[in-house]
Amino acid sequence: MSDVIKEAWRNYLLQLQLHPLRTKAVTAGVLIGCSDVIAQKISGNKKIQLRRLILMMLYGFAYSGPFGHFLHKLMDIIFRGKKDNQTVAKKVVLEQLTSSPWNNMLFMIYYGLVVEGRGWGLVKNKVRKDYPSVQLTAWKFWPIVGWINYQYMPIQFRVVFHSLVASCCGYLSESESKIYCY
């Protein structure tokens, strides 16, 4: 059994090296899908909402995986790949002041409009009401993840690490309260 796992991991690393964008996109989609299945089960759903699952996976595949891939490449260009504490702190602050607010806002809109199928007026009101607390909650948790990510993770694993943490965070809370996790 361990040989199968070792071979799967070797193949995954090879794909990550040969096709980094595609591999990170697929990984983000699969992890958000796993998170959503667990969240649905925890919330008491007897039957998995397949439409919701597919739309959540689409978000990970089409947006969060690719966005993370290019964000981390850009951060390494801006900061020339440095990993000293001062540079890591700057990366975390920059990420938390730019991509974190954007990603939380985008996810709230996507979730409301696409996943839940609500109208723009309802979604806009929900975002207006809930966004400040969602973002403040995110700023209590994600800077720590960002620090670990920039300090210890090689660039090829940063999206994978972030997606893994987000999926764990996502299944610990259900639907609307997990907004800040992605």
Describe this structure in words.
The chain is an all-alpha fold and 182 residues long. The chain has helices spanning 2-18, 20-42, 50-78, 85-97, 99-115, 120-152, 155-172. Helix 1 (2-18) packs across helix 2 and helix 2 (20-42) runs parallel beside helix 7 (155-172). The longest helix has 33 residues, at 120-152. The model is unreliable at 175-180 (pLDDT under 50).
Low-confidence regions: 175-180
Q: Would you count the extended β strands for me?
A: 0
Succession of helices and strands: HHHHHHH
The major sheet is characterized as:
none
Distance between the termini: 33 Å
Q: How many H/I helices?
A: 7
The overall pLDDT average reads: 92
Descriptors:
182 residues; mainly alpha; 7 helices; globular; disordered C terminus
Helix and strand topology:
Blueprint: H1 2-18, H2 20-42, H3 50-78, H4 85-97, H5 99-115, H6 120-152, H7 155-172
Helix pairs in contact: 1-2, 2-3, 2-7, 3-5, 3-7, 4-6, 5-6, 6-7
What is this entry, summarized?
The chain is an all-alpha fold and 182 residues long. 82% of the residues lie in helices and 0% in strands.
